[in-house]
Amino acid sequence: MTTFGLIRHGITDWNENGRAQGITDIPLNMTGKQQADAVANRLFLEEKWDVIVASDLSRAAETAEIIAAKLKLPVSHDARIREMDCGEIEGTNEEERVQKWGSHWRQLDLGIETAEELSQRGYEFLEEAATANESKRVLIVSHGGLISRTIQRLLPDKFPQAHLENTSVTNLRKWENNWDCTLYNCTKHLV
């Protein structure tokens, strides 16, 4: 059995301003760094982890480095667990999208990666990581869209919809061909 701890990165200025980040490389803000430190302390005190893998985008990579320093583990980076490519809407908020493309902007081809493509990327990564890390505990520091769509794909009956808070912890287990979620979107370290 492989256990995964899926961590959404700390908050950024673009998160706070409702801007689509996608694959634009936006750093953590001061609050995001504090959130990353809080989740690092939680993970250090509560559980032992063997491996940390992070998205190569700075908001996730920096969150992972803060966690890794506390857990004294190296971080590897993988571009497959980046956020959804938001195409032309990256850097815009809802109001700006409506002004530029109209209220039906979601129906336009703006170069946005599909939910199916995103979930396939996440699924393939987790399947490979489970095989490579049999019987280990693996932290994955990634993005809200990637994590949400991936758990929806793995457990569609349990998660017809999913939304994750910044630095939330979601735990999955894989054994044989089975997946289970034992903790979802937990942010008790931020209270």
Automatic annotation (TrEMBL):
* Pfam families with a match to the protein in the record: His_Phos_1
CDD domains (alphabetical) = HP_PGM_like
Q: Which GO terms describe its molecular function?
A: phosphatase activity
SUPFAM superfamilies linked: Phosphoglycerate mutase-like
| Catalytic residues, chain numbering | 9, 83
GO cellular component labels: cytoplasm
Residues binding substrate: 8-15, 59
Q: Which residues form the signal peptide?
A: none
InterPro entries found in the cross-reference section? His_Pase_superF_clade-1, His_PPase_superfam, PGM_Phosphatase
Protein name per UniProt: Broad specificity phosphatase PhoE
